[in-house]
Amino acid sequence: MSAGLRVAVLGAGGWGTALALLLAKRGHDVVLWSYEPDVARSMRERHVNPYLEGVELPAALDATDDLGSATRGAELIVSVSPSQFVRTVMMEAAPYIAGDALVMSASKGIELETLLRMDQVIAQILPARTMERFSVLSGPSFAAEVAREAPTAVVVASGSTSASARIQEAFQTGYFRVYTNPDVVGVELGGALKNVIALAAGVTAGLGYGHNTLAALITRGLAEMTRLGLAMGAERATFSGLAGMGDLVLTCTGDLSRNRTVGYRLGRGERLEDVLVDLHAVAEGVQTAAAVYELALRHQVEMPIAEQVFAIVHEGRPPAEALRTLMLRDPKPEEWS
Hints:
Elements: E1 6-10, H1 14-25, E2 29-33, H2 37-45, E3 62-64, H3 67-71, E4 76-79, H4 86-93, E5 102-105, E6 110-111, E7 116-117, H5 118-123, H6 128-131, E8 135-138, H7 143-147, E9 152-158, H8 161-171, E10 176-181, H9 184-206, H10 211-231, H11 242-253, H12 258-267, H13 272-279, H14 284-299, H15 304-315, H16 319-327
Parallel strand pairs: 1-2, 1-4, 2-3, 4-5, 5-8, 9-10
Antiparallel strand pairs: 6-7, 8-9
């Protein structure tokens, strides 16, 4: 695969815009679809997107709110809508997706109603022959830093080695390094589950705790992610890589993390409703916390941190009480099934 692909990026939030910008700089013919007509207009006429402030978009990057025109004839489809809207967007886009197109997901979440990963959601919409070449992109990558060309490493996973190689070539630049991995399940779950742990990381910071608490949370959070991943068919090694530990560290420690920000403000005593109104963006961990809670029950996996995050976010448990509950649990060995 060489430069010059016709690419449709479906979802004009910060991450979708950063990926579209990267692909346009790479030399591809990119159309960025936005659900919001005013955002598409802003990108076309003023070359700015309010979801990626401070970044000037090149004139070569086209933008539209017409899903059909964006998708029709595209050789590469990048699905990057918020996870709870992926099904709706892809169902509307499906009639326009060519049979030989590559489809890649860059959304990080679990569909709340069905508890399905994004690859499973899209598999219910697109033909099996298309899904044979399906891939997912994940890893530690804040949109604003990718847009500023900060050196970044991510991973693309697919059941098809040729599809992984084609995506790798399409995205690889001097500042955006793409590794491959055959474990679609693990890469999908890593990208979704880390957002829940990041909420907890923000809560501990909001409560005034420091590095000891954060280090314990990241380590034990990774253990929870791995346990659920193994129960759902993922490979253990994936959680030690970019889509697991890498993305977890970034999202739990970085000031640009929306999920950490939400958790921080909850730890400070603010109401979730007020925090989300101020955010003006999607914090995937809020919905994913409910999905992970249900998945842990379904697979009979013990996930105490995720359970307390669910209690804080969806049941109104005071954050300090949730932390006490974690610390006063019965002592255990570091590794348990």
